[in-house]
Amino acid sequence: MVDTLQHNEWSGKTDGLPWMQRSLIAMFRVLPLWLLYGVMAFVVPFYMIFNRKGYRAMYCFFHERMGYGKWKSFWSVYANHFRFGQIILDRFGVYAGKKYRFEIDGQSLVDALEARPEGFVILSSHVGNYEMAGYSMKPKIKKFNALVFSGETETVMENRQRVLSQNNIQIVPVKEDLSHLFTLNAALDNGEIVSLPADRIFGSQKNVECQFLGATARFPMGAFALAVQKNVSVLAVFVMKGRMRKYHAYVQEVGCNREGSKREQIAQMAQDFANRLETIIRCYPTQWFNYFDFWEQ
Question: For residue 8, what pLDDT is reported?
């Protein structure tokens, strides 16, 4: 369960050259996590200065969507960048062998669907640290297929593959020839689990409009269309950062009226997901990591 697709204003790629990332993994093997968090606290202001687009997008999110005042919005942008830095560090911590503790709400939903012969879909989003789910919520029966952005550095991709493959999770990179779609369709036909991002438009992908945080926003249609076409169950998983090595995962059912037309089912399912995502964001506002104008029409 990993970080996923890109947006034309936000690359989705982890910062740093491969040798820097390898050095970070090495440091995790000898340095305590709190020390690296402390260094990140001093790095964040510089990142905010040089990443003006991301800063403006997050400031507008807190000021316009969350209704914060100017000073609270400013400090929330700092807290958001710091949280994002912690989450990136946690990922590299896992690559180095660090262990994290998880509290999971809704594990029984996954267990029940795994016990059935049919495959099912899990929807991810760019809140919290979804990738960490793959290191703790291991599929017990079914093979897990996670669609991922293919433009990450070699260091990240190799370590993801190494750790996730131990948990019966297959990474499915996005391909220009769209061959990844055949892989996902085949996985569902084989009764496996498919993980897809459901909150970020990219390229010419079709979209569906939803009411989200007080305004109309576009969500990618692909994940919902696949679930409706295959007539499979759908779960949303949100993995939110807590203190130090603690995470809280929320597993929730995403549904629609299966008696309606396919277009109606897609629209209802997308809105249900948007509603659940909004609830999580209101509980964890500084863990929203879409650094562009999400509501841009």
Answer: 43
Residue carrying structure tokens 């409009």: 209
Pick the most confident of 132-136, 161-165, 224-228, 258-262.
224-228
Cα four-point dihedral sign 210, 198, 287, 237: positive
pLDDT band of residue 61 (cuts 50, 70, 90) is: very high
Strands across the sheet containing 120-124: 101-105, 246-253, 233-241, 120-124, 193-197, 144-148, 169-173
Nearest Cα neighbor of 280 from 170, 68, 129, 165 is: 129
Pairing of strands 233-241, 246-253: antiparallel
Angle between helices 33-50 and 70-95 (to 10 degrees): 130
